[in-house]
Amino acid sequence: MDIRDDCPHKDDENITHINRGNLTELLKHHFKCEITGTYLHQSLVRNDICECKLEDQHWCEDEDLHINYARKNISFQTICDGFTELIPITIEGQNETDETECEQWSCKNIYTPCDGLWNCPHGEDEVGCDLSSSLNCSSDCHKCVSPDTNELICLPVKQANDGKIDCLGATDEPTLCQEKYQVNFYYNFYCINSSPYKCIGHQSLCDNGAFCDHGDDEKFCVKNRTDISIVDNICHSSYVSIRSEVEQFLCHETKYKVKQQRKYFSLDEMSKPVEDQTKNIIKPIFSNLPRMEMPHQHELRCHRGFDLRIWLNNEKNLTTNACLCPPSFYGNMCQYQNQRVSLTIKFQVVSDSWSTLFAIIISLIDDSEERTIHSYEQFTYLATRDCKIKFNIYLLYSTRPKNESKNYAIQIDIYEKISLIYRGSLLFPIIFPFLPVHRLVYIVDIPRINEDIQSCSNSQCIRGKCVKYSNNPKNGSFCQCKPGWSGRYCTIQHTCTCSSDSICIDVLANNRSVCVCPINKFGDRCLLVNTICQMDKNFTCQHGGQCIPADEYMISARKFICICPKGYIGDRCEIVDNKIILSFQKSIVLSQSIFIHFIQVINNSAPMRTTTFRTIPLTKSSLVVYWSQPFHLVFIELLNKIYYLAVIQKTYERSTIINKMINPTDRCQHINELFNGTFVQMHVLRRIKYYHLPCRNYSSNLSCFYDDLHICLCYDYGNQRLANCFDFNHNMKFECLGQSVCENAGECFQDTSDCPQRSMCICPACFYGTRCQFSSSGFGLSLDSILAYHIQPHINLIHQPNIVKICFALTTILMVAGFINGTLALITFNNKIICEVGCGLYLLGSSITTLLITILFGLKFWILVLAQMAIISNRLFLQIQCISLDFLLRICLNMDQWLNACVAIERAITIIKATHFHKDKSRKLAKLAIAILLIVIIGTSIYDPFYRRLIDEENEDDKRVWCIVTYPSSLQIFNSIIHTFHFLTPFVINLISAVILIAKKSRQRSNLQINRSFKELLKEQIRQHKHLFTAPVALVILALPRLILLFISKCMKSTNDAWLFLVGYLISFIPPMLTFLVFVLPSKFYKKQLHKSLVAYRTKIQRRLKYIKYK
After folding, report:
1. I need a labelling partner for 593 at 20 to 30 A (CA). Which of 140, 156, 828, 860 fits?
2. pLDDT of amino acid 406
3. Separation CA 383–CA 356 (nearest Å)
4. Is the pLDDT of residue 286 over 70?
5. CA-to-CA distance for 97 and 88, rounded, in angstroms?
6. What is the spatial distance between Cα 251 and Cα 242, in angstroms, rounded to a whole number?
7. Spatial separation of the C-alpha atoms in residues 286 and 389, rounded to whole Å
8. Which backbone phi and psi does 678 adopt, to 5 degrees?
9. How many CB atoms lie within 10 A of CB 893?
């Protein structure tokens, strides 16, 4: 399938003989002629020979690709324009094209007037376009030449294109000289009743030779003219000044015309291309370099080199000639080729490093023990400047000829130029080492930022470390030597000659050090200082831009480039970004996040769309967007595909402030809201021809609408309101040109498709972070995930959102209740009589954990609030609280549940053993149980602090510090099981113990009261001991929301869900704060002991006060 017969029987060119498994992949690289169904090799496409043409066509699929596109794609701009572009499509049994069913289409719109072609049936779009003649016709008349008088007349539009010739040359009946699918109109003057020439071109008019049988092409010409050559015609450009009005008119009307097959979206008749003055990209200048002309004999003498004349003695005028050879040649006349590696390389970098300057070192190495570097090249790479550049490099061997017993490879080392941080290395082995010249092409992916450099274990790396190659981490590694050492295993010592502030990474075969220089130094040893960036900031980079000296390899008129901060662009960061202030009318229901689509209208090209993403602050109904790229339209997209037209400007103006209030009338309605269901289900080719109707019917109330393929604007044209549509992909995948750093199916947005400078990630539900690398399901119902986004930095607590203030009130209530409950419970159970049995020790432990939970909960809330308000910023303190608070809260909550379960077990055992119950044994067992529980609970949760960490999240609105926990998938399952175990097991124990206790007591009473039934006694015991049921059931009900939210919701998908999660979170702290109510108040014994304890404390306090008074 490459148009060459490689097989004896030409099987390789027969599509039916190709293996079906390989055919699909093979045909991807071939061009298909849609009409004939044949496939062409790519080399046959646009080779000036038509391979697909049919006899009745005026275009060729494989040559006229723009026409081919128009034939196969529906274009709003060319619908119903009087010329058939589309190949017929069968719809419901009928052949439909772009020119069928055009009754509701307005042929006079911004795409049709004054283009020289009649797009309306009677040519209304061309009326009034010719202003060159003195004849003034009304707005409903065409100008033309009368065939009777040969004078200009006004012809009513209704008589135009009516099948009757009223004008000379049939200029009123242009279809007589047109054919279907015709693109180029050469012959536009119609000869009446003439043969063989039916239509002739304007070059045949007034040429002193009649082509028409009746002399139509000469009858209007000025007679006896002497100022025109007999070989020329009056329509020749040199005779414009001597034409009569009639001649001028007919030359204009019958001139060569081309039907524009592809028309592009525009906002008015005259597209205004954007002059983009915002790029700060320096392109290499090679084509404009002065070229020195040399005598032919010198070029031959030095072959590919330069012939130099060297003065040996100026006084005696002694000179000699020498050849300056390129790297690929050597010899006194550059007559020999060097053995070499010719490398073409292109770099790709992920979006988080687009504005990072890299130092690239490309070395030719061998596999000897010395690991000799034969030659190397070093240059800088900046994605915003070099994203489209292919670097061409020659690498030479250190010996001539090379040692063919060795294996060679290309090693690429990458450093961040400003910080000199090592990013990684790549290795590309050179296969077939016997070849004298290697031509290699690579696309290199620069390792990601913060991507762990994979180390390895190699005991032979004595004075260095073992590092894996990023492009082959499984099999490839090398010893990265310390400065002053080299060789395969860093065993060869050498003297590093690099400057002290540079990095010495290796040594060449000639014992010269390989240095990576800091940003302001250059030269082989980094001893030369470039002071260009130390000059006045007004001369270099403004507004805090990073000044970068121009690279030595880059031939440029500029000596530096600027990496601009957010908000500024330009060669020197001197241009302020556009500022768009968007406010939303109160009736508009906003989603938390919105898409902002910027549309740039480009002359003779499809509109360029760039999309960004913003989060609307919870306390605001407005949004400020800074944008550096040109744009003409701005659309706001809320969730569920709800669009609003925000900005429309025909001419782009940079560094402007646009203040826009989004009203309900700015909403773009879907065609479902404008047409009935039957219409919406129609084929798009039929449906699109009715798209002017909504704009007419809804007048100024409709600014835009959309379907599944387009977005349409409504605009005023003359005395009518029409639609103007452009293609819009509503389901576009945002991947930052395949260089996205967004994880977990996050979408990447960039500021421009051409060498972008910035990007951002939009995260799916349950994920967050600058790269969507964190999951909110990992919070484990932490207060951080629920409340943090609602707390506004640098704003007083009084002015915080309602959810924060309500949480503050509830936290205060819970803390006060917790302290009262814990203190009273502690006073009650810190009693020798009560603690004589194990149950007392369990309740004493529960009282202590209650106080701890209250203190920890209060600390958690206030530290979170103060940290998010940017009042607390100490990193070490925040790190310690992040690791400890949630972990300690979890232990205390679980411990309290288990202690309550132990109380239930103790009571059940007491009833079962009755008189055989031993207090001393119970107390010892309780002490042991408490110790075991503490060890087990801590042991089953000890992994938690190791997976907790602080992360910083920064966007245009604020900067936050998060405390997050991220478990591996296997540990996440274990964590869920442990949560379930610590919750359900105490609940089941409480329930079973209560049942046993009541059943046992009922049985005992039935043995004593024979005259009463067991059922009656059971009911009585349940009434008497209902608190034994009530306590565990109430505790479980209150703790249940925490477990439900953990397993059902999995994560907080939106901050709008915060109320639900906050209620569930706070409820889970209520059970520990009910110890006093559940265990003390229902028990007469415990209340009596509490009263005694309070009396004792009161007596002690009174004695202390008296002592202080009389002291």
Report:
1. 860
2. 92
3. 8
4. no
5. 5
6. 13
7. 13
8. -65, -40
9. 24
**Contact (Cβ atoms closer than 8 angstroms) between residue 194 and residue 216:** yes
Residue whose C-alpha is closest to residue 1080's, from 739, 820, 891 = 820
Q: Is the per-residue pLDDT at 722 higher than 50? A: yes
Instruction: Tell me the C-alpha to C-alpha distance, in Å, between residue 690 and each of 86, 106, 684, 832.
Output: 18, 10, 10, 91
Least confident range from 383-392, 771-780, 844-853, 949-958: namely 771-780
Residue 1102 CB partners (closer than 8 Å, separation 6+): none
Which domains are assigned to the chain? 19-72 (no CATH), 123-259 (no CATH), 296-330 (no CATH), 340-546 (no CATH), 575-768 (no CATH), 797-1080 (1.20.1070.10)
pLDDT surpasses 70 at 527: yes
What are 324's strand-pairing partners? 306
Q: What is the model's pTM?
A: 0.70
Instruction: Return the beta strands (E) in 702-789 as ranges.
Output: 704-706, 710-717, 720-727, 747-750, 759-762, 767-768, 774-775
Range 613-628 burial, b when 16+ CB lie within 10 A, else e: bbbbebeeeebebebb
Tokens linked to 278: 């915002």
Nearest-angstrom CA–CA distance, 349 and 337: 35
Q: Angle CA(225)–CA(230)–CA(231) in degrees, nearest 5?
A: 145
Q: What is the dihedral of CA 703, 707, 710, 715, to 10 degrees?
A: -20
Burial environment of residue 903 by CB neighbours within 10 A (0 to 12, 13 to 18, 19 or more): buried
Enter the tokens of residue 180. Answer: 């279907």
Tokens of 709: 């393929």
Residue at 587: amino acid letter: S
DSSP-assigned beta bridge partners for residue 553: none
- What's the CA gap between 903 and 921, in Å, rounded? 15
Q: Tell me which of 1054 and 196 has the higher pLDDT.
A: 196
Q: Which two tokens stand for residue 106?
A: 């307005």
Side chain identity at residue 885, one-letter code: L
Q: How many CB atoms lie within 10 A of CB 1039?
A: 21
575/626 Cα distance (integer angstroms): 12
Pairing of strands 437-445, 340-348: parallel
Q: pLDDT grade, residue 451 (50/70/90)?
A: low
| Whole-angstrom distance, CA of residue 213 vs CA of residue 199 | 11
The amino acid at residue 127 is V
In whole angstroms, what is the distance from residue 1047 CA to residue 760 CA?
A: 31
58 vs 1059, residue with greater confidence: 1059
- CA 509/CA 493 separation, integer angstroms: 13
Give the Cα separation of 62 and 1 in Å (integer). 16
Q: In terms of DSSP bridges, do strands 657-662 and 578-584 run parallel, antiparallel, or are they unpaired? A: parallel
Query: How high is the pLDDT of residue 279?
Result: 39
Structure tokens at 728: 């819009």
* 486 token code pair: 């080299």
- State the CB neighbour count (10 A cutoff) for residue 959: 10
State residue 465 phi and psi, 5-degree precision.
-135, 150
Residue 890 CA to chain centroid, in angstroms? 38
Q: How far apart (Å, rounded) are the C-alpha atoms in residues 381 and 360?
A: 7
Q: Sort 1108 into a burial class: Cβ within 10 Å, 0-12 / 13-18 / 19+.
A: exposed
**What pLDDT sits at residue 750?**
76
pLDDT at 2 over 70: no
* 494 three-state secondary structure: coil
The answer, yes or no, to whether residue 294 has pLDDT greater than 60, is: no
Q: Tell me how far apart the alpha carbons of residues 920 and 926 are, in angstroms, rounded to a whole number.
A: 10
What is the distance between the alpha carbons of residues 1000 and 917, in angstroms, rounded to a whole number?
Answer: 15
> Do residues 597 and 608 lie in contact, with contact meaning Cβ atoms separated by under 8 Å?
no
Question: What is the pLDDT averaged over residues 826-831?
Answer: 88
Structure tokens at 1048: 């059902």
In whole angstroms, what separates CA 1082 from the centre of its chain? Answer: 62
